[in-house]
Amino acid sequence: MPPIPTNSPRLVAPTRAIGNAVTFKVSAKPGATVNIYRNGILVSSVPAAAAAALKVTDNPAGENSFQVVVVEQSGKISVSEKSTVATGPVTGSKNATSPQKKSPANGKAVVPKKNAPQSKASTSKDSK
Questions:
Q1: Fold exhibited by the domain 10-102
Q2: From CA 103, how far away is CA 13, in angstroms rounded?
Q3: pLDDT tens digits along 63-97
Q4: Quick one: which of 36, 55, 89, 90 could link to 96 by a disulfide (CB 3.0–4.6 Å)?
Q5: How far is CA 89 from CA 40, 57, 86, 92, in A?
Q6: φ and ψ at 89, to 5 degrees?
Q7: What's 89's DSSP letter?
Q8: Which of 40, 41, 39, 70 is nearest to 54 (CA)?
Q9: What are the distances in angstroms from CA 113 to CA 74, 90, 100?
Q10: d(Cα 29, Cα 27) in Å, to the nearest integer?
């Protein structure tokens, strides 16, 4: 990570981890560049327009330190506090980000299946 002046303005960059993916919400002025560092190494650099919901995937499992650095066209630098995020492998189906509901029978989590065929009752005037 390049040296950052100690008096650089701080910015807020909320994070959310699901499995090994971390999503950042970054607000930056048009024309700025948003850089995401994981454990001190640049892993993503995007224009401000793409930073409202920026996702970094394929993070190693365990605790990772993230920091967001925004560089405006004028050269002004804003930086977030370092945040430690625990990431891990996605378990179960590919739909692991689906909301989970508890089964009333046994209290275990049930993940709704997407793309599962659903039967629908239909009626028509011609049915007997």
A1: Immunoglobulin-like (2.60.40)
A2: 36
A3: 999 989 999 999 889 888 888 888 876 554 343 33
A4: 90
A5: 22, 11, 11, 10
A6: -70, 150
A7: P
A8: 70
A9: 49, 16, 10
A10: 7
Query: Looking at the DSSP assignment, which residues form a beta bridge with residue 101?
Result: 110
Q: For 69, phi and psi rounded to 5 degrees?
A: -125, 125
Rounded-to-integer distance, Cα 37 and Cα 45, Å: 9
Cα separation, 47 vs 37, whole angstroms: 15
Task: Please tell me the total number of residues recorded for the chain in this structure.
Answer: 128
pTM over the 0.90 mark? no
Give dist(CA 71, CA 79) in Å, integer: 9
pLDDT tens-digit series, residues 31-63: 999 999 999 999 999 999 888 888 898 888 889
- Using the Cα atoms of residue 82, residue 57, residue 78 and residue 41 in order, give the sign of their dihedral: positive
Residue pointed to by tokens 């930073």:
51
Q: Determine contact, residues 34/68, Cβ cutoff 8 Å.
A: yes
Span of 1-5, 20-24, 55-59, 121-125 with lowest mean pLDDT: 121-125
Give, as one character, the DSSP assignment of residue 18: E
The values of phi and psi at residue 119, to 5°, are -90, 140
